Sequence to fold (427 residues):
Amino acid sequence: MFKDWLKSIEVYADRRMITMLLLGFSSGFPLLLVFGTLSLWLKNAGLSLVVIGFFSLTKIPYSFKWLWSPIVDRVSLPFFHKFGRRRGWALFSQLLLLFGILGMALQNPAYCPYMMAVFAFFVAFFSATQDIVLDAYRIESFNNREQGAGAAIFVLGYRFGLIFSGAGALWLASVWTWNEVYLLMAAGTFVGMAAVLLSPEPKKVKEDEHLHGTFRQKAHEFFYRAVVCPFQDFLKRPDWWLILLFVMCYKLCDAYMMPMTMPFYDDMGFTKKEIAYVTKFYGIIAAIVGGLIGGVIINRCGVMRSLVFCGVIQGLSNLVFVLQAHAGHDLSMLMFTISVENLAGGMGTAAFVAYISSLCNVAYTATQYALLSSFMSLIRDVFAATSGFLAASVSWSTFFILTAAMALPGLILLGFMLKLYPGKKDA
Fold:
């Protein structure tokens, strides 16, 4: 038994994990440069909260990346094709990310916020494009049993990227100008470029057959192969509607609670410094450990069983906030609360990403993954927008009990899927 678990842990010794760590960093660090970190720069520049709020629209590409994912999935870029389809698109998007972040670094938002918005949108677009290809690269690099470990290391790198462009950028901004900080942030793109150049093209990438006929016939054939076929392939599953319901529900308990955690901490009397210290230090460490544990569990028990275990832990972790509500301003309890929530969230994320990855046909990896992840985000974010109304109507303890109960629909659907398809239990 012990030897079996030890063998499961050995998956992390694979050299591919170093590539996943670096690619995860490359995927994660651009996000805060157009989100939290940028918001503080705009605030320091004297822009109004209304204008800062409108800047959130620059993140739209992340929610609609499925629209151009068929092109990334099926088209080899001129000149970059010699690196392979996946590596070529990764390098292309990273080079344009470098250009976009440098463009942001040269702006003065106090005098020209519009140009800053243009470059922020540019960065978000090519960051989303990079996500499409890196998700495909990750999925095609591992078999189903290895997906959990690969996802865990990728998410670990992603969190390091967030620390670099979040806490790292804020610390540097206390001694440097914002323009200098963003110039340094642009260097983060070199991490991903190095990883791509030093790693091989995934063997699972399926090359397209040559298109024949007139330009109109070629365009029609490409649209059919790149857009229609991935959707048709997914809809051929007899349980496709059940899968979509499950994708919507599995992490709903976390997604619904998340917008209210900061107001909750504030109501408990914690200062911004206390919240920042605990969430950045204990939270990040717990999330990393949770992701690594999730990867080991998936490699040992399979994706479906891991979804059950991690889903239960994920739901129960919300109840720790009930204890925090009763404890009030207790810093030790906050450390415990955030650690448990992030540990469970890291485990659940590893299992969930591995599951979505396993659903993707290698012939349409980028398109199907982008579709599932975007669909999941849009539906959950819309529903989570009502969390403020619920929190205002009930006590904090009741609110967190109700969010914990939101784990039940996903678990019930998962149980139904396992009963309907018992052969998937060990998948």
The mean pLDDT is 83. The two ends are 19 Å apart (CA to CA).
